Amino acid sequence: MSEPAPIDPVALADDPARPASDSPAVEDRRERGRSRSSRLAGFVYLRQRLALYLTVAVASVILNFALPRFMPGDPATQMIREITNKTGAPPSGYQIQMIKARYGDPDRPLVLQFWDYITQLAHGDLGQSAQYYPISVNELIARALPWTLYLAIVSTVLGWIIGTYLGARLGWRPGRRLDAMLTPLSMFFSSIPAFWLGLLIVWYFAYMNGWFPNQGAYDNSLPIDLTSADFYLSALYHSVLPFFTLVIVGFARWLFSMRNMMITTVNEDYVQLARAKGLPENRIRSRYAARNALLPNFTGLAQSMGGALTAVILAETVFIYPGIGSLLTGAQAARDFPVMQGVMLMVIFASLLFNFIADSVYVLLDPRTREVR
Amino acid sequence: MVKRFLLIGKVQVGLAIIAVFTLMAIFGPWFSTTVLGTTPQQVDYLHLNGSPPGPGHWLGTTSQGQDVLSWMLHGTRTSMLVGFTSAVIGTFLTVVIGAWAGFSGGFVDRFLNGVILVFGNFPTFALLFIVAAAFQNANWLLVSIVIGGIEWAGGARQIRAQTMSLRGRDFTTALRTVGESRARIILVEVMPHLLGVISPMFLGLIAAGVNQQAALAFLGIGNPSEPSWGLMINWAMTQNALFRGLWWWFVPPGLALCLIGFATTMVNFGLDEITNPTLSSRRMKLMRIFLRDTARASRQKELVSS
Amino acid sequence: MVPPSAQSDLAEAIVPETDRGTPVLEARDVHVHFPGTDSAGRPVTIRALDGVDLSLHAGQICALVGESGSGKTTIARLFALIHSPTSGEIRFKGEPVKVRGGRAERAYYRNVQLIYQDPFASLNGLKKIRTIISRVVKIHYPRLGRKRTQERTAELLQKVNLTPPERYLDRYPTDLSGGQRQRVAIARTLAVDPDVLLADEPTSMLDASIRLDVLNLLSDLRESEDVAVLYITHDIASARYLSDRIHVMYGGKVVESGPTERIVSAPVHPYTQLLLSAAPDPARFKGSGAPVHEAIPDARPVDTTKELRGCRFADRCPVATPRCTTEDLPLFRSTEDDHTVQCWQAENAAEYVRQR
Amino acid sequence: ACGGSTGGGSPSGATEDGGSGARSTAGTIDNDGILRIGATIATSNVFPENFNVFGGGDSAPGNALFWETLFRISSTDGSALVPNLGKSFEYTEEGKVCTYTLRDDVTWNDGEKFTSKDVAYTYGFIFEEPGTEPDEDGNLPWLAKAIETPDEHTVVVTYNEPQYTEDLPLSLYFPIYPEHIYKDLDRQSYQDKAPVGTGPGRLTKFSGQQIEIEIREDYWGEVSSELKAVHIVPAGTAGNIESQITKGDVDWSQGGAPGVVDNFVGMEDHNGYFYYPDGSTRGIIMATHKGPTKDVAVRKALRAGADMSIVAQAAGIAYTVPSVTGLDTGIYESMLKEEFSKPMTADVEGAKKLLADAGWSVNDAGNLEKDGKEFPLKLYIQNDNPVEMTTMPIVVDQWSTNLGLKVEFTPLPADVFGPAQAKGDYELSLWTTNAAGGAFQAFTMYMHTKIYKIGDELADGNYGRWEMPDAANEAITAITQTPPDQVDQIVEHCQVLQQAVSDDAPYIPVQSNGAGGMFTTMKWSGIKQASEIDYFPRVDGYNNVVQTLRDLSPTKA
Amino acid sequence: MTLTSAPQHHETETEILERLERSRTLLDVRGLCVDYVTESGNIRACDDVDLTLKRGEILGVAGESASGKSTLLNALGRLQRMPAATSAGEIWFHPTDGSDPVDIATLDERELAPYRWTRISVVMQSAMASLNPVIRLGEQFTDVIRTHAPEVSEAAARAQAEELLTMVGISADRLTAFPFQLSGGMQQRALIALSLACDPDLVLMDEPTTAVDVVMQRQILDQVLAAQERLGFAVVFVTHDLSLLLEISDRIAIMYGGKVVEVGTAARLHSSAKHPYTRALRRAFPPLSEPVRRLSGIPGSPPDLLALPAGCAFSTRCGDAMPLCHQRIPQLRDIDPGRSACFLTNGELSDEELAQQLAARDAAPEQHREDRS
Ligand SMILES: Nc1ncnc2c1ncn2[C@@H]1O[C@H](COP(=O)(O)OP(=O)(O)OP(=O)(O)O)[C@@H](O)[C@H]1O
Ligand SMILES: Nc1ncnc2c1ncn2[C@@H]1O[C@H](COP(=O)(O)OP(=O)(O)OP(=O)(O)O)[C@@H](O)[C@H]1O
Ligand SMILES: [Mg+2]
Ligand SMILES: [Mg+2]
């Protein structure tokens, strides 16, 4: 007989949804003066988040520096060999110097190496690809990143909206038939690996029936023309299957987190009070219940961006989508460390950026975050 | 509590699925060789080029004429092995780091919490991918270590929060003020309280480990001589199974992955219902029945009175 | 069974200072400051205790009342070595207490024990009552032997009226009612034969119907074990019921202290008066025509973050004068009984002499 | 359906199957003058924007439309060179001096004239610094003196040693670069985004997913007159290109995935597939320097232990089984010794006997055992070839069923596989054993020991570390020193080599390699039968793609 | 205008009774039953409750924890949430405008709307939880005002809200504040102000002051009483603090185990309660001004609603229990003045029956009494 400790919601560390102050010791007069200062100091929460993200960014830069240097197989040698094999001649002295500077010259003190690395990075220079030498990593990423961002952002947001909306519906009146049907179903959906579902979808929709293209981000026969509607339409058409996959595996977790949150919220006193006030049901559902239930889901959205990128990376491989994921897998197969590192750095920065954007919106949504604990 | 937990239908289904796969992992290969009489490597020359499920090959053959079922059975072993091992490693790190941070407070906590946050905000798969890629051709153990070594941050955060709240709870303070030693408080008094968090976390890590391994294998990372679900999908995809319509080759491993994930979701859902009874679906059903019955009773009463 | 009630009589309760000997536990001018942040996130200092003198005597129950945040719990935790004073000292039987961890701390806990507010939280729900209590016996009397330990555990349960002990030994705290749990918690503190019991709102989480039993138990233990009890409460009526002395706290200071009946019937400090008039009294039931309390003008909680000269209560005080905030807070002591008050109001009565 | 049984000189059965699978009918259909080619590039499906094939990294596909070599190799006769940018060449001084005469009607696509300076520049960096003194390893430099250009159309190369065979690799792998563009650049790290070549193509647009190349009007050679542009798109992974060709989105693509003959050709009327063996061979190289494969008996037993015709059938891409020498029985028909003129067959009993005689046994675990020592074997392959991923498990299973030998099938990514092979850290590895390009190329590509450094370790281009018998070594030297027109002599030397390979079994030939290609005749027709042409219709071989473009014509509706 | 002064006039018990006699019925509850549906069985937390409430009456409801006070209150306001359900009974509401009484227990949510807040409003125990944390205080006032009086302009509603807030001593500028920016006591007062927003006939208060300090509690009570005196609404006031109820209520209902066991004026309950449970409960509060005597609590613990003892629920803890008490459930009957549900006093038994039972009890004392602990 053991009693699992109940999960203590307040204890879940940096959960901004926790009540900002549990001490009643707040004085009337002081409060009046405070309303202004609180508006000024309102973004302490954001400041804290920003500090966190900066730490993560710095850590990832350090990790990025450290990884190739402490992993088996020496990327510098790897790259020199790669060039030797390809060109039949060893790289020039200057090249070797550059390669070693970036990927670790065993003869140079680590601190100096780090300094070189940082200065290069500060210039926005991610180095050159080993596989596609001398193409710069920046160039490869610049070409791939927009596609990935497009996939990741749209699919995540779409999945979030669908899941949250359905969850709010189901959680408002749980236990109904739709709930009994959709909730277990979405539980199953959420456990489908994105890459496998993608495979099935490609197989069925592209190979078996040919309704959708099985590869690429836009119609090859169209030029990339950012002013032509055809180009956008074809890009949209090509992204239907990836979106479909990502939304199916993505929406479910929002659905049941929203559903559960909604059920809990509907039981909150303030929703009861809203009911007692005789407000119209619509208003209670949207303004009182859903809005509050939404907050944790929103935090979740911010935190899920990193994970969303993972799913996108895998899905890109299946849909042969010319994004970061394809670039990364290609680089991995060729052991193109510079590209792998650059991509990772990009992915981290992108996910941190999303986090921060989501956090900023969150601050607008939840006034409590504008207060300090 | 445990009993109540085990009585929930969702939990039972979830645990049953995991149990079935565990059994498959233990006895599958044996079953494959002795009962089916095949190994994944064995080629059936009569069924080259992938033949659909049928009497000889219950799940069909691959494009090399290898038995898909045998692959599945052997693959289950690798996948579950990775799942369990990475979960053990991950849970260990989770608990040690989380509890350590939660209990020590002060600088140690701030440092460890920073580490946890950094890892938690990392897109771990990218990291996993790159680290695993460095150990090309890594065997299952190495893959497990890498997965376990990277996938601990989320859990550690929870454990830390839990320990912190436990540390602040009166009963730990009370134990201190009766002169109990710190070590004993942590290990004997507090640990059992964490089990409620650790056990679902462990399950979740198994599923995560299995999935991560599959994703890595799908991308071609890992030892190609160890059959696993991800490797099956990878081979099916690279060997044109989609175009050739050999669906029996890539559907079963994916389904297995789904089921594992589904099982842990179910268990966690059940756990939610325990800790938050408003979510209990059983209760919702009872409520529906009750309301129906009272409505019927009152209607009858009205009939009688009128 | 409960021993016959000791009638808490006015005359008995007033024991002259000199007769009481050295206090068992004593706080001398302690200050406790906590770091905190204000609403705008700026760091501030919370003066949880701001120069407190307090002494506990064997066989005496001392009540501590005051509004939320006035520092009552902080005193208890200070005595239990959970916090350490920012300045000032704690004396145990006249000796300054300066222990931090280890054996000395254990020895201290053999004398001073803390009873917590929430019996649902202060017992480990996963352990049997037997383990909870016998563990303490084992810690402090390691050489007792298993059999004696078990016997002692049973005795302790009996002491807190959990009879027969066998019925409770193998149960889990979750199986007991709140009052029973609080008794278990008390039994655990008694396992060490303490000289001092610090009870921090031991009944506030309990139902009205069982509160009194726990209070009575404390009162009886005071008699039978000759312990000193610090009883912390919000409820001045229960303080009156149980204690020999009452200390009234406000904003980290003991603003008034004295024999119970003295405080209840003739409070000097305006805050004590406010507290008394605000407390519900069954005798003033509606329809009784009893005189009603004064209107309560203002109920703001105190802010202890600012350094202030004089009296913290001054801005709420109906009788405040300019000197309340311009001069240092005085301390008046009664010549007739052991009554002290930190308010200029006492100046007018001949009975009081200024100490500070 | 199409096994390796079709020997002889005609193109393989699959060519007929595939080629004839596509039917063309009358009337021109609208194709905008654009030919869409699917190109396989590494795992990532984005083209790198770099056409510098002499640079440090992978370059974009389609560079065969820009870069051209002096000569090209005929597909009908293994070693014959066909004039291209070069009109003729002549060896003097016993093969030490080669004089090239160039065409005079060639221009670069930026309008500059193509001259001997360009050839001198290109060959100059290929052959490196001239000299006459051996280096510290005792190797002489290639060139005795700098390349001379007596006039705009003449190039004189002076070697230190006779090099009658050097033009073959030059024709295969070394296109001529524009001196006026490249001379001041760091060739290895120049990212060429605007290739200036002699070929028919001019780059008009580049995007990660599509390379648009227009056909220039002032091209010296000949391409289909209806062809206005070539667009190159990524082929994706297995299955992608097939379905795109089937839909008509892509017209032509190199390669063929397992089962292509059954699945792809049968899918639509207009789908076609061909397979031209090009004289190269894929085989399992055995480490002759270590482990059980050091023993020739083991090597021969392994070679005899698997039936490669079954394997060929399983692959379903219509390749043939080469002879035991590794040479294709079709292309090299005239050169092969009588006893080697048939595709290799299995001899299980013989294999077992060989093992037993040499004192080897196979233990319960399926490992080779000798003198109480057990040797587990692994077969390494590079994991990015779907055909081999399909066929090699079957080879492994053959050994298992025939000899009871359990060889671990180990597909590896290129970057693990390559170094392992180069360093000799393997027992069995699948690689190209005989190169295309004639008798000399066929046997020397991986057998000349080439040692170079990988980091601190030494690698060997002769992956199997096979030490050839003296006779074979002499035969090789003799070939390099025999003028190409003395065919009989060359055949004689070649047969010595054939015998050596057959006797020593340094590798197990698995499949005769070649050019596979899938196409649709929806928009373009004219991809010819192997018997009709003397080139390999492949997308990325210099000159071959140009030849193919010449033969294309719009499909008549 | 701030309501800070305590009510001046003090009625005697007779005056109170007369006033109640004079005023008309507002709420008439008959046989109300509320069940909680749980996995381990249905808990009947309100069992056959009969109550009448007059206009302007302050009815106190007291009882131990889990005696069903909140359940009753929620049922009266038709505010039960999962898993509670009103399973039987009628709640007749007599509108003050003289229209026909309605049984609000049978109305559905839409039909209830006109009663909510304009007729019946609530003050819940935890103000912190009852105010929606992410909606500004002002909106929480104006939305209810404008829902029930759509003709009122936003500005007018705001003015009304300001007036309400000032009435409870909160400055009007706090309307722009979020609830968490207010101290606990202020939140509680704001909630009370909110409950008066639509001039209700009945305010249901569930322990509105338990969470605050004594001084604050007193201040809030004063404000409630002053407002009540001025506006004349009726109050149902739930608390476990009997001594508080005695001070403020016209009549008090004592609940035990889901049943009302006694109803009477404060005066009667103070000095001559008819039910042993009431007496015991009354004794559990030590006096502040009367002489201190040793008191004792009620032996045993409150009944488990899933396994109620046979007969009177209190019989197992009752010092006066007779054999019949363990067999039959006593009815809540009118006595003069008030009502009682104890065989000793409710007149259910004839005099000889009672005497007989008493004799039987005294013959076998202590038999049914539980141990003190
Ligand atoms: N660990 C701590 N850190 C920071 N501030 C603290 C801490 N403990 C107490 N305080 C602050 O010290 C002041 C006094 O707190 P304390 O708990 O002693 O009050 P109390 O009189 O016991 O109140 P209550 O009646 O609510 O229990 C409060 O303002 C409180 O917020
Ligand atoms: N959500 C619920 N599910 C199941 N049982 C419940 C629920 N809420 C209350 N109960 C049960 O109903 C009974 C009455 O509860 P209620 O909250 O009405 O008591 P109360 O008198 O208000 O107590 P308190 O003084 O603690 O507020 C209790 O036995 C309680 O256990
Ligand atoms: Mg306290
Ligand atoms: Mg309640």
From TrEMBL, chain A:
Positions of the UniProt region annotated as Disordered: 1-33
UniProt keyword annotation of Ligase present: no
Protein name per its UniProtKB record: Peptide ABC transporter permease
Annotated keywords: Membrane, Transmembrane, Transmembrane helix, Transport
Cellular localization per UniProt: Cell membrane; Membrane
Database matches in InterPro entries: MetI-like, MetI-like_sf
Gene Ontology CC terms, in alphabetical order: plasma membrane
Family: Belongs to the binding-protein-dependent transport system permease family.
Membrane topology: Multi-pass membrane protein
GO biological process annotation, one example: transmembrane transport
Automatic annotation (TrEMBL), chain B:
Domain ABC transmembrane type-1 per the UniProt entry, residue ranges: 76-268
Main location: membrane
GO CC term (a single one): plasma membrane
Keyword Hydrolase carried by entry: no
Record's bilayer topology term: Multi-pass membrane protein
UniProt keywords, alphabetically: Cell membrane, Membrane, Transmembrane, Transmembrane helix, Transport
UniProt cross-references to PROSITE patterns, sorted A to Z: ABC_TM1
Annotated transmembrane regions: 12-31, 80-103, 115-135, 141-159, 185-210, 246-271
Name of the protein in question: Peptide ABC transporter permease
UniProtKB/TrEMBL annotation, chain C:
GO biological process, one term: peptide transport
Keyword vocabulary terms for this entry: ATP-binding, Nucleotide-binding, Transport
Protein name: Peptide ABC transporter ATP-binding protein
Organism: Brachybacterium ginsengisoli
Alphabetical list of CDD domains matching this protein: ABC_NikE_OppD_transporters
UniProt-listed Gene3D superfamilies: P-loop containing nucleotide triphosphate hydrolases
GO molecular function: ATP binding; ATP hydrolysis activity
SUPFAM superfamilies assigned to the protein according to its UniProt record, in alphabetical order: P-loop containing nucleoside triphosphate hydrolases
Pfam family, one: ABC_tran
Top-level taxon: Bacteria
Entries under SMART domains matching the protein: AAA (SM00382)
Domain ABC transporter: 25-276
TrEMBL record, chain E:
Primary location group: membrane
Subcellular location(s) of the protein: Cell membrane
Recorded GO MF terms: ATP binding; ATP hydrolysis activity
Pfam families the UniProt entry points to: ABC_tran, oligo_HPY
Record's keyword terms, sorted: ATP-binding, Cell membrane, Membrane, Nucleotide-binding, Transport
Residue intervals of the ABC transporter domain: 29-282
Membrane topology designation: Peripheral membrane protein
Any one GO CC term of the record: plasma membrane
PROSITE patterns, alphabetized: ABC_TRANSPORTER_1 (PS00211), ABC_TRANSPORTER_2 (PS50893)
Gene Ontology BP annotations: peptide transport
Classification via PANTHER family: DIPEPTIDE TRANSPORT ATP-BINDING PROTEIN DPPD, OLIGOPEPTIDE TRANSPORT ATP-BINDING PROTEIN APPD
Record-stated family: Belongs to the ABC transporter superfamily.
Record's protein name: Dipeptide/oligopeptide/nickel ABC transporter ATP-binding protein
Organism encoding this protein: Brachybacterium ginsengisoli
